[in-house]
Amino acid sequence: MSHADASVLIEDRSLEEKFDPEMRFRPLRFGTAWLVAGLLFALSMFHYYTAGFGLLRETTHRGIHMAFVLGLIFLVFAARKSDQDKVAPSQWWRPGGISLLDWTLAAAAAMASLYVPSIFHELAFRVGNPTTTDVVMGTILIVVLLEAVRRSVGWPLPFIAIMVMLYAYFGPTMPGILKHPGASWSNIVNHLYLTSQGIYGIALGVVATYVFHYVLFGVLATRVGLGKLFIDLASCVAGRYAGGPAKVSIFGSALFGMISGSSIANTVTVGSLTIPAMIRMGYPRHFAAAVESTASTGGQITPPIMGAAAFLMVEFLNVSYQTVILAAIVPALMHFFGVFMQVHFEAKRSGMRGMSAEELPHAMTVLREGWQSVMPLAVLLIVLFSGFTPYLAAFWGITACVLIGTVRVPLVTMGFLAAIAGAIAAGLLTKLVFIVPVFAIVCGLMIYTWLQSEAGKAKMIELADAFVVGAKYAIGVGAAAATVGIIVGIVTLTGVGFKISFIVTSFATQIAQTLGDFMPVWLFDLKSMTLFFTLVMTAVVCILLGCGVPTTANYIIMVTVAAPALGLLGVAPIVAHFFVFYYGVLADITPPVALAAYAGASMAGADPFKTGNTAFRLGLGKALVPFVFVYGPAMLIVTPEFTWPSFLMIVSSCMVGIVLLSAAFTGYALGALRTWERWLAGLAALPIIAPDGTMTAIGLALASPVIVSQLLKARVRQAAVAA
């Protein structure tokens, strides 16, 4: 890595830490910093090793993961924000610059996390009849977990967890339909601590089994040059056209999103190159930041690495990860298409030029120098789509990253890829007879590179740092997942999820009945209107909840509470899960807490709130797409409703609607739009997007005056140019 690349990396990381609460680590004294780095490295190596050589027993694996995560949080996150940005002196009550209280909490968190795995053989006799020690240890874990997630994520999530526990305890005093028999503290701890329905449930299991590995893979793949390759390729493809840097931002964010499930990481990494270029080209600063942040939120919905929610979907729905990937492809494309059209119209309206040949990289040079960086992603996808587990695919992808980071020799790269393909064909990929020799060869190459020169040592230090940073990215989401386990556990203990679903659907039905008198029956029946208002309420709650809760936690909470409501109205489970997932992601660009937009605004020197508003407008295509695939599930490909005619009709009508909506917001298409044309285009877009032949025809009829007017303007302009 060059000095320039290193400085950019340091700046990007500082921006991530500024805007992502899960990355705001306090500065540590030298000795403590090495201890924390060693623990982070050990956490990464634990997951890397178990992914390839075999997972531990479920409860043990989750317990070890949580012990590391919670213990580290108390070492790297200060109790108060005022102490988060300064190095504390080392004193007897603050050894290593960390207070005795934090050391005690870290030890208590590790002890309480490992207690359940230690009594695993007796657990079957303890569930439902916890001992005093069980209750004490469970209480300790709940308390330290809430404090850990408060430090790493913020107040909203632990506040929600406390509220639901109070609801479980005071059930008999609740009003109306929310009333239930209640549960003693012993029963609450038993359910949350000793069963797999609470803290040690699916959410923690998915993070410990899948998410950690893919976060680590994304960091390593970026370090070996895959992120830079994607950005350079995006420049080659889109840079020469009108408003080039903005379109590079979209293509680059889409490609980078394939290896990064974090909106903020995507924004600061791709934006470090594209935002300054957009500003130089003449884009307003807030618009440049908004383009990058909006495109970057698409990273969380772009296969194959879509963040934690995609892996949770696998577990909740009991489907393969390949199914989730296939379902996500078209909606992700619609998101980027919507941003692209608004950027294109904005560039045409403002007369923005493309990038000159001197400003663009040469495609052949980019591919010749960076093609080996693609190998880790190719290995991951080959293993994944060969039917193996996602964590095994991540293991081989990480191994490929280490190999490329150690030695960039084309013959070695192609040999490794051939070895993987051969092992899959021979059925040896999961066998130690194949894993051990490959692992030994990679380790041998690392040792040789370290001993060879100072440059070799620098490579190895860079790889080790990537393992440390990968663990840093994962500890916040690990604590959040465990805390969401409390919420899910209370929902299963009290049955409140179905009660809330009943309340939501009943309220939506009342609204539909009230408005039904004013709507033609042939256009809107009661059931479709009830579904529509249920979707609207669910979307609003997802966005509001996402303002203070991480995407993963938002998804789990809304799936637990809202998905049953959609299921009651006939929405397929995978469609309901994708709906709440997409709206949870939208919160990253929705003011007042639009973290990705604020990160982009900081890089551009723009007004954060103005940037957030513009980003939300640019992302409205993404806001409409979930409604499309609810009413037209064929868009997700994997649903029973899929047929090629219905799929093509839904996708094409959605694209036409997005184009009209983009023109309405921008005020430009083939030429400038007058006020009435903008309103009519926006109004026509909504029925066109609806995957229904009648509605599409109504929308096209509404849009026809705008289309004719724009075609006439284009003809007049062409005639003027020809003259």
From TrEMBL:
Its main location: membrane. One of its GO terms (cellular component) is plasma membrane. Part of the tripartite ATP-independent periplasmic (TRAP) transport system. This is TRAP transporter permease. InterPro entries: DctM, TRAP_DctM-Dct_fused. Keywords: Cell inner membrane, Cell membrane, Membrane, Transmembrane, Transmembrane helix, Transport. Residues 141-451 form the TRAP C4-dicarboxylate transport system permease DctM subunit domain.
